[in-house]
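Internal ticket - ligand job 237, S-adenosylmethionine:
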Amino acid sequence: MLDIADFTRARRHMVANQIEGRGIRDPAVLTAMRAVPREAFLRKGLEEFAYRDSPLPIGEGQTISQPFVVALMIEAAQVKPGDSVLEVGAGSGYAAAILSRIAGKVHGIERHPALVEQAQRRLAGLGYDNVRLRAGDGTRGWPEAAPFDAIIVSARGPSVPQALKDQLAIGGRLVMPVGDENAGQSLVKITRRSATDFATQDDLAAVRFVPLIGEEAWVRPDTERPRPGRPTPSAAR
Ligand code: SAM
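stdout (structure tokens):
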């Protein structure tokens, strides 16, 4: 049975090897990753695997992301103190906890209400009180809380939902995996330069994510067809 000192050691080791060792340099990201106990976001019995270099099951057929991918996305989104951030696909609440230690406030949307309840309990228990979570379709964003300085989409879609682009502040950054299961997925970054001008960087990294299911995404978990009439990935970028 591991104790707090074991987890702290394993976490430092994880940050040194998996995060810094792979080129993440943002000091705020490194500090947050050293502080947030990933074991607290796992189901009972899985805690001992908390600092493995992999995603892990969290229930409802979903996963907590690999720590390196969480760090990579947050660094790419250039999240800064005071920023207002939206995470779509909050899952276990782990990435929201990392974001909450860097940004001013964090809004997170998760499709599965049971995961939202669990994540809310965990975040409150750890004292991360600048995070608000709600259940729903994150492809529509959170219009009442917009605009956001950064948006992180933690599930892969066929394209970047227009509603999320519309909810970026001028100068805001969005990072999201785009692509399908078979043809491959890559991380895409969009920066809003003005009301109508969006700069796109494709292929920040090759990744593997669970699908984004919703109004502006895949229809159902078992299909890769975007909804009819929605833009194709290339048209949307
Ligand atoms: N960042 C999360 C964490 O730290 O645990 C992991 C996210 S998991 C890889 C992706 C999540 O996106 C899943 O929990 C899934 O239910 C959720 N999801 C998929 N489509 C969604 C949508 N349209 N709106 C909100 N959440 C969605």
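Auto-summary: Residues 58, 62-65, 88-92, 94-95, 109-112, 115, 137-139, 154-155, 209-210, 212-214, 217 surround S-adenosylmethionine (CB under 6 Å). Residues 230-237 have pLDDT under 50 and may be disordered.
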